[in-house]
């Protein structure tokens, strides 16, 4: 089922209920997987952007904070590769995060020309707040799935990514 809420408690108009029923039936097995994944990505991004707005963090900045936290002391070039963006784009993100004192760059010990990125104490604090907001968004998006189904979904998506 595409819509996992009780429509009868939310939508009382029988014509709109019929529309949703027809939409669900038409999306059954004929909808392209790539379309469904894209639609889910747009929905997730929109909800995450809304959730992070109160923290004044974009989804791209959240991604940078998360990657830097997981793999501290990356260079800008390494971070750009992780995010599949060009170095100038990543530098704009890093500069914005530096202005908000969420990350800092320091010269690498082995090569002073390379600047290593790390989170500040404030960056770690903001990242934890972002994670809590993300947990709520994930619960909203995937709460209709059992723990087993969610685990299977993660495994399948990772399998696709690694293919």
List keywords for this structure.
163 residues, mainly alpha, Arc Repressor Mutant, subunit A, three-stranded antiparallel beta sheet, 7% strand, disordered N terminus
Could you provide a short overview of the structure?
The chain has 163 residues and is mainly alpha-helical.
The fraction of residues assigned to DSSP E strands is 5-15%
Shape: elongated
Q: What is the class of the domain at 56-162 in the CATH system?
A: Mainly Alpha
CA(first)-CA(last) distance: 27 Å
Could you tell me the CATH topology label of the domain at 56-162: Arc Repressor Mutant, subunit A
Runs in which pLDDT lies below 50 for 5 or more consecutive residues are 1-10
Write down the Rg. 20 Å
Strands in their spatial order, largest beta sheet: 1-3-2
Averaging pLDDT over every residue, what do you get?
A: 86
Question: Quick one: CATH superfamily of the domain at 56-162?
Answer: Winged helix-like DNA-binding domain superfamily/Winged helix DNA-binding domain
How many extended strands? 3
């Amino acid at each position: 089922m595409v819509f996992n809420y009780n429509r009868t408690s939310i939508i009382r108009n029988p014509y709109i209920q019929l529309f949703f029923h027809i939409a669900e039936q038409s999306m059954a097995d004929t909808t392209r997987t790539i379309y469904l994944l894209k639609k889910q990505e747009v929905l997730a991004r929109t909800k995450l952007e809304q959730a992070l707005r109160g923290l004044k963090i974009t989804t791209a900045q959240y991604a940078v904070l998360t990657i830097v936290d997981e793999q501290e002391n990356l260079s800008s070039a390494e971070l750009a590769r992780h995010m599949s963006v060009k170095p100038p784009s990543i530098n704009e993100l890093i500069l914005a995060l530096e202005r908000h004192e969420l990350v800092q760059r320091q010269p690498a010990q082995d090569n002073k020309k390379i600047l290593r990125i790390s989170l500040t104490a404030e960056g770690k604090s903001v990242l934890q707040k972002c994670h809590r907001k993300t947990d709520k968004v994930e619960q909203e998006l995937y709460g209709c799935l059992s723990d087993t189904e969610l685990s299977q979904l993660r495994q399948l998506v990772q399998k696709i990514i690694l293919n």
